[in-house]
Amino acid sequence: MDFEFEEFDSPEDIFIAMSTMAPPMKNVLPINSYKGYIFSIIPLTPASGNSYLMIYSKGKLDGKLLEFDMNLKKFKSVEAAERSDKIYFVVLTPKSNTIADAAISTLEKKSI
After folding, report:
1. Residue 34 three-state SS
2. Rounded Cα gap, residues 95 and 92, in angstroms
3. How big is the CA angle at 11 (ends 27 and 95), to the nearest 5 degrees?
4. Which residues contact 29 (CB under 8 A, 6 or more apart)?
5. Residue 48: is it exposed, middle or buried by C-beta count within 10 angstroms (0-12/13-18/19+)?
6. Residue pLDDT, tens place only, 53-82
7. Dihedral (CA of 45, 6, 24, 60) sign
8. Helix H or strand E segment including 19
């Protein structure tokens, strides 16, 4: 697998990047909080599945559903996705994720 990386300073910056990539009318997006990173892994070659972009920031997120206000650059935990003018992120915290493990390993080797 090949990985490309895009590092951000904060989760809010990741949310802004993800919000601009979201297809129109899709206002609930997944985000991972795993092994000290907050990230999304996007396939760059969907047909072969060999190249991925990891958009990430170091940190941890708790919560299941986050409401994000892009204008204020703020998020908060909510119970339901109720507002069409907001973008929502479902925070996934997997027990294991082999693609994320490979990406994190590659990233940490590059950082040394």
Report:
1. strand
2. 10
3. 85
4. 18, 19, 22, 40, 87, 88, 89, 90
5. exposed
6. 999 999 999 879 999 988 899 999 999 988
7. positive
8. helix 11-21
